Amino acid sequence: MKIPPHLRSLKPGMAEKLGYYVYLYVDPRDGKVFYIGKGKDERCLDHLFEDDDHPKVKRIREIFAAGLEPRIEILAHSMATSEEAYLVEAAAIDLIGLKELTNKVVGHNSLIYGRKSLKELEIFYASTPASIVDPVMLITINQLYRNGMTAQELYEATRGVWANHAFERLAGVGLVCAVFEGIVKEVYKPEEWRPARADGYDTRAPLMPEDIKGRVEFVGKLAPEDIRKRYIDTSVRDYLGKGSQNPCRYVNC
Asked: Among the four residues 17, 48, 92, 208, which has the most C-beta atoms within 10 Å?
């Protein structure tokens, strides 16, 4: 793939003036943005020289093969820090939608700072503190959670697999709350706690034997509606404590 001379490098002095920036790759055949990125210096040109099977690279090759070239646009520039550029990148990806792009993941911190309804932001920033009266296990799923999860995906992200739990204590857990960034997203009633298994997770990547050794999981169902209404969208941050690395926290157990 021969790169035209004007796309091989930026003009002298441009990089310094651009600072950190967010850029777009536009397909000239339909005028649609197909990739969004952030960077500085000549980062916006680097993809033209990549040689792998990333969907973005395949799209670039198709455009050149058609006798055209991708249109590279700068969405925002002169940002002082990488973190500022990350926020703009995440907002742009959220606006267009990951399904419309060749980006493989949402933008940095998009789950927290990305596109949300005003109602969602009210829950995140001004939620009602939970008053937990039941024997509950709070399970933080920050690493597995994403916006738009199906009910099955959320359940499977919550039910396993968790380390260092005695079955005698687990027997006293009446409810399990799925928690993202301190907010309860769903409530389950566990029917069985058992040693974790590699199978049985339809919406998650395959679990390896080394991933489940010594770990536990539960099988359950949604809690009764009156209980779900009591806890969903409430804040349990006061129960989690600060700096805790354990994703599971017992309350009243």
From this structure: 92
